[in-house]
Amino acid sequence: MYKQFVIIIAITGVFSSCNEDLIQLSPISQNSAGNFYSTPEQIEQAVVGVYDGLQLTGQYRQYFIYLMEVRSDNSKQQSTTSSGGVFGDVDLFRMEATSNVVELAWKDCYKGIQRCNIVLKRIESVSVNPNKTVQIGEIKFIRALTYFNLVRLFGDVPLVTKEYGDPFEAFELVRTPKADVYALIIKDLTEACQSLNTNALRPGGATKNAAYALLGKVQLTLGNFTEAIAALRNVSGVLLPNYADNFGLANENSVESLFEIQFKKGGIGEGSPYANLFTPFGASYLIGGIGTTFGDNLPTQDIYNSYPVGDIRRDVTMGKTTSDVLYTKKYIDTPFKDLDGGNNFIVLRYADVVLMLAEALNEQGYIADDEAFTLLNKIRNRAGLSSLTSLDLPEQNSFRIAIANERRWELAFENHRWFDLVRTGKAIQVMNAHTSESGVMNTVTNENLLYPIPQSQVDATNGKITQNPGYGF
């Protein structure tokens, strides 16, 4: 469990007397800085605080679900007007630069990055720290993950790699070309691969396997297939015999899971909101009648109908209420209280690695019934489906389609679908062919492949941070 050390590592509001809309990059409280980071135990608490940044509402606790999954053809909002319509706007491609969703996602990502930068700077102050090398690897993994999410969501973003002692320096920030952001991500992950151990330093902590898996995903995203294959081959993992054994409280941090965001229910401020958020209206019996139901991130009929006959993943992934409403089953449990569930969020699974490796091998060059087919069929066979051969997939593009389908079915509601569509160049085609079940969806254009930069960031820097095309006033 990642305990919250808010006082220790809280990022104070930037320019609390000047401008609270700018990226939150100010240092930790000076009152605590002088007395902290002086023992291995305090460094460990600070590292835990870095992990805790991933739990922020604008990141994996809530908003990433909408930006990465509801955006796609996999899921929808039961009501596009609930919560002021802010999540419905994501679903229907009606985003504006003043959206609270992108605002908090941006700020919470930079809060997390600044936590990383603070600890990376201070960790050297403790001369005797047996875990220092691994801890540095953990922090660089988390910083790389956060920047990877930022650059895929927004494109060019400010690249911040130091602790800001003078918050006025933040006014000089501009958007860094995404190639330079990716260069830092790859550097951080390459170093994390060398620093981390095979086993985690703490429950749910980053490992060498997680770092190689993320590095492989980054290289695949960039179209660097040789480099992606090299990274992914370094991942040592296991596919559980039963697909269902990846999900539910009893299966958290399983041998197939490579990295999860840790949550714990019990009224201690560490619970996840997924069970309440993803339960349809009027179906509180699914969560023991505890708390509010929000009807968020509900499966579309499209994905439900897309599964092949006999695919066991469909009924593990989705359920139907007594009113025949589909819901996302992977995250349902009985919360301790409203928005206080125990479900972790899986960021990386070994099944993802298997499918990425198959994809990269096929992109490097189609070979009939070779290793890429073996990898693809491992995933299919576990799902209860028969193997595919070159008679079924006779050339490279048919294999691409098969991989895209398997990724959709295998990784549904795990925040991969939107990025997969964008990465493979299929987002505009697929989403414009998708019939929205939530309301009238705007036509998807190339500009919609990125989200708007929060207008507050543009305004606070007097335009030094520029807006993405299509979102200006």
Keywords:
mainly alpha; two-stranded antiparallel sheet; two-stranded antiparallel ribbon; 20 helices; 4% strand; globular
Describe the protein's architecture and organization:
The structure is a single chain. The chain is mostly helical. It has a domain at 6-262 and 346-353: Alpha Horseshoe (Serine Threonine Protein Phosphatase 5, Tetratricopeptide repeat), CATH 1.25.40. The chain has helices spanning 6-9, 30-33, 40-53, 57-61, 63-70, 86-91, 100-122, 132-154, 178-195, 208-221, 225-233, 274-277, 301-306, 313-317, 350-364, 371-382, 396-410, 417-423, 427-433, 455-460; strands spanning 75-76, 257-261, 298-299, 318-320, 326-328, 345-349. The strands form three sheets. A two-stranded antiparallel ribbon has the order 1-3.
Question: What's the topology here?
Answer:
Layout lengths: L5 H4 L20 H4 L6 H14 L3 H5 L1 H8 L4 E2 L9 H6 L8 H23 L9 H23 L23 H18 L12 H14 L3 H9 L23 E5 L12 H4 L20 E2 L1 H6 L6 H5 E3 L5 E3 L16 E5 H15 L6 H12 L13 H15 L6 H7 L3 H7 L21 H6 L13
Antiparallel strand pairs: 1-3, 2-6, 4-5
Helix pairs in contact: 3-7, 3-8, 7-8, 8-9, 9-10, 10-11, 10-15, 11-15, 15-16, 15-17
